[in-house]
Amino acid sequence: MSQQVALITGITGQDGSYLAEQLLDKGYVVHGLIRRSSTFNTARIDHLYLDPHDPDARLFLHYGDLTDGSRLVTLLERVEPTEVYHLGAQSHVRVSFDEPEFTGDVTGLGTTRLLEALRVSKVPARFYQASSSEMFGATPPPQNENAFFYPRSPYAAAKVYSYWMVRNYREAYGLFACNGILFNHESPRRGETFVTRKITMAIARIAAGLQDVLYLGNLDARRDWGYAPEYADAMWRMLQADEPADYVVATGTSYSVGDFVRMAFEHADLDWEKHVKFDPRYLRPTEVDDLIGDATKAKDVLGWQAQTFTPELVKIMVDADRARLGA
Ligand code: NAP
Ligand code: GDD
To answer: 312 CA to middle of ligand 2, Å?
Structure first.
């Protein structure tokens, strides 16, 4: 078999790190796009990295940015990937209300730049787009591939735009391009300002005597929370299918933020009511109230189904954060 070569945007993020790990295990050569920053941003993938002079090196990192279209062209021409996984984005919903224009540029137009770079460079790679359950927004659950999009944030609107650009490049140019409509997925590598990780880190700090109060916003919102490594596997499966298509990836269950809080504190033998306080700063101008994904198509076509459900995920994350602090 010829060498499989992947290019991952967003390789330094939660999902990018798991996907890179899994592709390297499968024998891929993996290239990642990283942003230049004055401090290192590669902590999630440092364990995978070998000096490029090492004959065993199969992970290579390249500077670039989704706002720089010409760079995306030169990178594709140089790397010649067989598969492109587009995970890079300004991915924080609350932040997108503060930075709507920037979010549109990176999370929306960034996808168009990458698709266009593929088209003009004529690199015949398969393309994965990190679409999101946020696109369903106010549409009542359960949500499947045929549910309406009703975005409730600048982030979600940018993802809807990207979703349709991917569909358009598939139909207009015959690109093998898939939208993975992933519901929330978490892990010990989750960004620290997303609610699950914020909760589990606070519990570890409270148990270690380093913090007393955890300030949160809306505890009533419901989410379908799965385990991130399993969702990275779903991305790969989409690009191995016979035909390009769009898939919902979810557990099919939902819990409120309050449920997550209670389960996590209980797992650490702590009383959440003594530690959790409300801060309106964490409310959003418009909220997504209830997400539950119907992943029947992913099961039927890709043979994918969730193995880890929210109560187990809570334990994995609390245990990992406590172990990190020795608490
Ligand atoms: P994440 O941890 O926030 O990672 C985002 C990645 O994008 C990081 O590597 C980040 O680089 C990179 N990035 C941000 N702006 C960029 C730019 N201008 N140019 C190049 N790279 C840039 O997100 P995640 O949780 O892994 O999610 C991966 C993708 O799936 C995102 O597109 C997200 O919107 C989408 N998604 C996530 C979920 C979820 O529940 N996790 C669900 C549905 C969809 P730095 O490390 O330098 O910041
Ligand atoms: N972040 C955060 N911080 N959220 C809070 C807080 C808080 O202090 N308090 C309550 N919440 C509520 C939010 O209002 C929201 O209803 C819910 O917790 C989940 O928020 P996040 O963890 O920030 O995730 P998200 O659902 O908004 O977005 C994530 O999932 C999307 C998929 O549906 C992100 O990963 C997106 O990139 C992804 O597309």
So the answer is: 19
- CATH number for 195-223+254-292+308-325 (one of 3.90.25.10, 1.10.1740.10, 2.60.120.330, 3.30.470.20): it is 3.90.25.10
Atom 5 of ligand 2: nearest residue by CA position: 195
The 3-state DSSP class for residue 279 equals: coil
> Which one of the listed residues 134, 153, 162, 231 is annotated catalytic?
134
CA of 275 from ligand 1 middle (Å) equals 30
Note the pTM of the prediction, 2 decimals. Answer: 0.98
Within 26-135, residue ranges assigned H as helices are: 69-79, 93-98, 100-103, 110-121
Fold of 5-186+227-249: Rossmann fold (3.40.50)
In whole angstroms, give the CA distance from residue 133 to residue 112.
Answer: 20
- Digits of tens for pLDDT over the chain (327 positions)? 699 999 999 999 999 999 999 999 999 999 999 999 999 999 999 999 999 999 999 999 999 999 999 999 999 999 999 999 999 999 999 999 999 999 999 999 999 999 999 999 999 999 999 999 999 999 999 999 999 999 999 999 999 999 999 999 999 999 999 999 999 999 999 999 999 999 999 999 999 999 999 999 999 999 999 999 999 999 999 999 999 999 999 999 999 999 999 999 999 999 999 999 999 999 999 999 999 999 999 999 999 999 999 999 999 999 999 999 998
